[in-house]
């Protein structure tokens, strides 16, 4: 039952109607018996500042941040955690007094399935990351934490790629990766033990699209891991094509669960959150 005492959590994005975060967070809050509700807030980029002011006015406890706000949110925060500063992107914001504290749980979420289900010696492996937006920043940091030998970020827009590279120069992660124009992919794909899609290409409603064609993936190393941060549809066209090449697919669902659980711990200021219920709620919702 929602009442005048119910506390507000949510997710901001544009678009945001596809988000499954409300499904898993509300399942967790119900399991914990807390008087909270987690809502999706569609916020266009030009409305971000006024929306954050509105959140302050109505006493929102905290919120998740998704595309396209992960970097744009930074100027409106009073404090940014070291990991979020190093990455330059925020996905989790918490109310503190009259201000907002931003951090990034995407790194933890991204590496979780790679450390558990597919744990291996990454020190001899190469990662190829498609895209250079806010999500790519967490993936770069995750690959650095895992200790990959080589990390290559590939983008279509040379100006944005250059800006991406330059934006890391004051970070402890500077010079731990290389950037490449999309045309260099044919020489990178054969080295890709871990290939990650951080772009929105293939996300609902454009479910027939893929950032790479079957022809572009033909030289993927056998048994390599292909990871798509997108979780709707499941599997994406990208992962279907990768499987045809003998790759091991990972979709964004477990990353979603793990980064969400880490965020919930921060908002509720408690260590025990019902991850099993969060995962199961998502699977039930998706009919899995």
From TrEMBL:
Cellular component aspect of the GO annotation: cytosol
Functional pathway: Metabolic intermediate biosynthesis; chorismate biosynthesis; chorismate from D-erythrose 4-phosphate and phosphoenolpyruvate: step 4/7
One of the GO biological process terms: chorismate biosynthetic process
Active site location: 70
First-level EC class: oxidoreductase
Pfam families, alphabetized: SDH_C (PF18317), Shikimate_dh_N (PF08501)
Swiss-Prot/TrEMBL catalytic activity: shikimate + NADP(+) = 3-dehydroshikimate + NADPH + H(+)
A GO molecular function held by the record: shikimate 3-dehydrogenase (NADP+) activity
Residues in SDH C-terminal domain copies: 252-283
Binding site for NADP(+): 131-135, 229, 252
EC number annotated for this UniProt entry: 1.1.1.25
CDD domains linked to this entry: NAD_bind_Shikimate_DH
Binding site for shikimate: 19-21, 66, 91, 106, 231, 259
Domain of life, source organism: Bacteria
Residues of the Shikimate dehydrogenase substrate binding N-terminal domain: 11-93
Keywords assigned: Amino-acid biosynthesis, Aromatic amino acid biosynthesis, NADP, Oxidoreductase
Binding partners and assembly: Homodimer.
Xref: NCBIfam families: aroE, PRK00258.2-2
PANTHER family (alphabetical): BIFUNCTIONAL 3-DEHYDROQUINATE DEHYDRATASE_SHIKIMATE DEHYDROGENASE, CHLOROPLASTIC, SHIKIMATE DEHYDROGENASE
Family: Belongs to the shikimate dehydrogenase family.
Annotated HAMAP family: Shikimate_DH_AroE
Protein name: Shikimate dehydrogenase (NADP(+))
Phylogenetic placement of the source organism: Bacteria, Bacillati, Cyanobacteriota, Cyanophyceae, Nostocales
Encoding gene per record: aroE
